[in-house]
Design brief:
Layout (H helix, E strand, L loop, with lengths): L1 H25 L14 H5 L19 E8 L3 H21 L8 E7 L5 H12 L5 E4 L8 H9 L4 E4 L8 E6 L2 H15 L4 E7 L5 H17 L3 E8 L3 H17 L47 H8 L9 H7 L19 H10 L2 H11 L3 E6 L2 H14 L6 E5 L3 H8 L3 E7 L1 H16 L7 E3 L2 E4 L7 H4 L5
Parallel strand pairs: 1-2, 1-3, 3-4, 4-5, 5-11, 6-7, 6-8, 8-9, 9-10
Antiparallel strand pairs: 10-12
Helix pairs in contact: 3-15, 6-7, 8-11, 8-12, 9-11, 10-11, 12-13
Length: 476
């Protein structure tokens, strides 16, 4: 009897060993667990809910095609986002053991020029013609691409959004930074930095995307509600600079009419405190009237602009005829009217020539000189923060104007290290890209998605940027 029991136990043990060996061979190599964490784990740990931190349970069919379309592809931010997308794809294929033509295909595309909506639409058209299993898009304009997204929905292609939302009803999930919270943090950090009082200038990346709108509204609200002694004197949208140039020219013309100096009454047509030149985006910053008190400053090189405009009114610097350039300025007051003189003695063609002679840098220089007592500046994106950094360097105002903004990148981290930038809201583009692929896969598998996935952000300063936990979240 004992002998039989020993034989039986030996057989059971052998069978268990064989079964274990077979199971081990079939077990995926990537489990998302283990004692050794991947170097990118900190980026995933910042993502919430936790279901979007790994690819477990995403048993996609071989050859599944996931199309991810970003705003652009050349910035440090977009490159980091693309890394997250590609890492998620690699983890999926490792988990599922797919090779060759069976591999999950994940493709990232973005415009060559920063946030070019026309190119993004073209990329979207091309990707839809390939009939991906799911589409992820970071919309340059939250209201754009309606035709294409309608087409995707009608063809059974599910859509998720990332980085910036879209108002299309077919969006099943949005993976992004909590923009309102991040901008609010930036606002009160800047308020603390300048001692809770003074004038602040806000630079906004664009006037079309959801992310820009959310950040702008939150920043202005924080300042208005909790820092009454801080005045947001201007909100400048980087995609509307042509309109600001026109307004500057009109203001200069009135200065000439008034004898070279504004009277501070605010009758110059400029819109303060969060308003775009066309009146959109009115903010609730405190002290609406005070912004006009320093209107006498002149932008660099503008003192002789009227004379120069009159000399060159028949041939502007970019080769565009003055009448054509005037017609291209959206919102221009005198569009299509004959070249008549106004009270300042300038014709419309002379004004148009003056507008065309101005560079984007002249706009920033004008407002920096208009507000000589400016205490702070905040950029709501990498591009906006970079524009502020360059403008303050050129004006040699970095010692008395505190600059803060969004995102990392080599140049911004160097400026933070040397004290030119006082603080940065650093997003988590790697985690965002990774979570976007997870959300896309969950959509294909009908596993359900959260309406919004928060990918987190980190507040970085000169003092904490060398901390190990912070360094893991930075990118160049």
């Amino acid at each position: 009897m004992n002998g039989k029991l020993k034989v039986t136990a030996a057989v059971v043990l052998l069978a268990a060993m064989v079964f274990s060996a077979c199971t081990k061979e079939e077990q995926p190599q990537f489990t998302g667990e283990g004692t050794q964490e991947p170097e990118y784990q900190a980026h995933l740990d910042a993502v919430s809910p936790s279901a979007y931190r790994n690819v477990q349970g995403l048993n996609l069919e071989p050859g599944t095609y996931i199309s991810i379309i970003g705003k652009e592809e050349s910035s440090a931010y977009s490159k980091e986002l693309n890394k997250g997308v590609m890492q998620a794809a690699e983890d999926l294929n490792t988990l599922l053991g797919y090779t060759g033509s069976d591999r999950i295909k994940v493709v990232y595309n973005g415009a060559a020029k920063s946030e070019d909506i026309g190119e993004q639409v073209n990329i979207l058209d091309e990707e839809l013609s390939r009939y991906p299993d799911v589409l992820g898009i970071a919309s340059v304009d939250e209201d754009a691409c309606t035709v294409q997204l309608d087409l995707a929905t009608s063809n059974g292609i599910p859509i998720i959004a990332f980085d910036s939302g879209n108002v299309h009803p077919g969006i099943l999930c949005t993976v992004k930074t909590d923009n309102a919270d991040a901008a609010r943090t930036g606002a009160y950090k800047l308020a603390d930095e300048i001692g809770g009082a003074g004038q602040v200038l806000l630079l906004v990346n664009d006037s079309e995307s959801e992310s820009s709108r959310e950040r702008t509204e939150s920043f202005l609200q924080e300042m208005s509600e909790n820092h009454p002694d801080i005045e947001v004197v201007e909100t400048i949208y980087l995609d509307d600079l042509a309109k600001y140039k026109r307004r500057i020219v009109e203001e200069k013309a009135r200065e000439l009419e008034a004898g070279g100096v504004e009277d501070g009454t605010g009758q110059d047509g400029m819109t303060e405190n969060g308003a775009r030149p066309d009146g959109v985006g009115q903010g609730g910053a405190a002290g609406n009237e005070a912004g006009q008190n320093n209107a006498a400053g002149n932008a660099s090189g503008q003192d002789n602009a009227v004379d120069n405009a009159r000399e060159t009114s028949g041939s502007v610097t970019d080769g565009t005829r003055p009448g054509e350039a005037a017609a291209n300025l959206e919102g221009q007051e005198n569009e299509g009217t004959p070249a008549t003189s106004d009270a300042a003695g300038m014709t419309d063609e002379e004004k148009t020539a003056m507008v065309n002679a101005m560079s984007d840098e002249d706009v920033y220089a004008y407002y920096l000189e208009k507000y000589p007592d400016l205490k702070g500046m905040f950029g709501t994106s990498f591009s906006a923060t970079q524009a502020g950094l360059k403008a303050l360097r050129r004006a040699e105002r970095l010692e008395n104007v505190s600059l803060m903004g969004f995102d990392a990148g080599k140049e911004q981290l160097e400026a933070l290290k040397n004290g030119e930038i006082k603080g940065l809201v650093v997003q988590n583009p790697f985690g965002m890209g990774y979570a976007a692929v997870v959300a896309a896969a969950r959509t294909i598998l009908d596993q359900g998605n959260e309406a919004q996935v928060d990918t987190g952000y980190t507040w970085v300063t000169q003092e904490n940027m060398e901390d190990a936990a912070i360094k893991r979240m930075l990118y160049e």
